[in-house]
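Title: Comparing notes on inverse folding

I've been comparing how different people in this forum approach sequence design from structure. To keep things fair, I'm posting one structure and asking everyone to reply with a full sequence. Here's the target:
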């Protein structure tokens, strides 16, 4: 009879706990719905200004550093090396954020990242050759921005689930509208204030990352530890077993117990390290395939548009034509993001399929662009590449966030940035070396086009293997 009563008590307690958990879950959902209509907009705005202030000038690197490279007799390899280091440090920034977020809020980690990035931005003003860019731009700005990116994406994922693609598209579109005029703005600043004066203005704009990080807040419901009868019973049995071991007269048993505890402590440390770097997700072959394909594609895309001004100068274009091409690309980027925001608001978009299709057409169109020399045709092809680039940038983080859980996203995205960084630091110097060896940018651009192939080849293979 007593046994039956105990079972009934356990059942009743478990029912109460389950109900409490459901109520807590409902409360969380209601809180999220309420926040979506209020603070979610501030988070989107903070994301936009963070990306503009942080890396808005990166696509205009060729425009900014062209004369400086000539005056200091620097090589293209040093510029690509700086971007390779930047990509690796992005990953380390994400890992640092993943470690700090276990004890502190994401917003605090983002603020620390903003300070580190600002330090790198202001020290860039005083460089005397591009050989110092791997430290000021690559290391400091890379770590800082790497800590801010997961904060932005994680906070957006917290506020938006069903409309995530549309919201991300809108954010990227607003970002693109401003960046569309950035090359013209920088061209005028270089003419008026010179090279170092322009870097000072860029550093001042970078200060806006601080308010951008200040808005990255979430209101998670505090989790209470509820003790069920099963937990109480387990704790009681554990205490009894510990007492039996401790009170045995045989000291050998005590030594064995101590060794067991030491072994558990070592295992705990090992598990903490593995959890910090989120290594367990590497057991997922689909995630690994996503990382490899996106890492090569993102490296190819970033380096292509960084070097494009250099290629256009080689074609004989003047500064106005080069700035116009960059602005056309940025305008097309905005159009692509607005179109994607509109389409995703009507139909459900498979982000991974869209990423693959955009990669395929980017590969084909780049081969065409390298055969063109007339300004009108190059500008038109650049506009189409801008649209495709918009779809690549919007879908890239969403492909990962749609594959992993919200809790796993910061760690998964940090590992992806590490993968992208390793690709950058390995292949970026080789791209610059190709230009220096052939004294021509065209072979380097063919090599960048080939970097699209890992995604185009590996993803269909995965699809075929999964279908079997």
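Reply #1:
Here's my take.
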């Amino acid at each position: 009879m007593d046994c039956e009563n105990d079972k009934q008590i356990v059942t009743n307690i478990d029912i109460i706990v389950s109900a409490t958990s459901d109520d807590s879950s409902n409360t969380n959902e209601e809180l999220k719905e309420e926040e979506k209509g209020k603070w979610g907009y501030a988070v989107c705005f903070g994301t936009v200004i963070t990306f503009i202030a942080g890396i808005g000038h990166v696509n205009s690197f060729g425009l900014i550093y062209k004369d400086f490279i000539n005056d200091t007799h620097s090589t293209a390899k040093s510029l690509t090396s700086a971007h390779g280091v930047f990509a690796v440090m992005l990953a380390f920034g994400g890992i640092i954020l993943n470690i700090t977020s276990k004890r502190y809020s994401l917003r605090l980690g983002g603020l620390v990242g903003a300070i580190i990035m600002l330090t790198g931005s202001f020290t860039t003003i005083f460089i005397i050759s591009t050989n110092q860019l791997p430290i000021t731009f690559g290391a400091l700005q890379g770590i800082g921005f790497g800590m801010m990116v997961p904060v932005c994406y994680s906070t957006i994922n917290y506020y938006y689930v069903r409309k995530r693609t549309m919201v991300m598209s809108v954010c990227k579109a607003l970002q693109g509208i401003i960046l569309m005029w950035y090359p013209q703005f920088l061209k005028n600043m270089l003419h008026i204030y010179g090279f170092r004066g322009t870097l000072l203005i860029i550093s001042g704009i970078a200060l806006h990352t601080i308010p951008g990080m200040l808005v990255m807040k979430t209101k998670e419901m505090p989790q209470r530890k509820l003790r069920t009868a099963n937990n109480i019973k387990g704790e009681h049995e554990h205490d009894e077993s510990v007492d039996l071991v401790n009170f045995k007269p045989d000291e050998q048993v005590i030594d064995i117990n101590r060794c067991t505890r030491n072994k558990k402590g070592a295992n705990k440390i090992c598990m903490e390290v593995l959890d910090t770097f989120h290594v367990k997700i590497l057991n997922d072959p689909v995630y690994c395939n996503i990382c490899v394909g996106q890492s090569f594609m993102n490296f190819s895309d970033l380096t292509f548009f960084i070097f494009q001004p250099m290629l256009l100068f080689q074609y004989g274009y003047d500064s106005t034509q080069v700035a116009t091409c960059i602005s056309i690309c940025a305008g097309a980027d905005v159009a692509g993001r607005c179109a994607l925001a509109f389409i995703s608001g009507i139909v459900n978009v498979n982000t991974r399929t869209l990423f693959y299709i955009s990669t395929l057409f980017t590969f084909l169109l780049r081969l065409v662009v390298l055969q063109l020399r007339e300004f009108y045709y190059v500008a038109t092809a650049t506009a189409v590449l801008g649209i495709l680039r918009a779809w690549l940038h919007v879908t890239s983080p969403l492909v990962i966030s749609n594959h992993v859980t919200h809790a796993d996203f910061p760690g998964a995205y940090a590992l992806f940035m590490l993968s992208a960084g390793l690709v950058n630091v390995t292949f970026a110097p080789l791209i610059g070396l190709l230009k220096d060896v052939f004294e021509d940018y065209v072979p380097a651009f063919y090599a960048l086009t080939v970097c699209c192939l890992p995604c185009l080849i590996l993803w269909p293979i995965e699809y075929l293997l999964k279908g079997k």
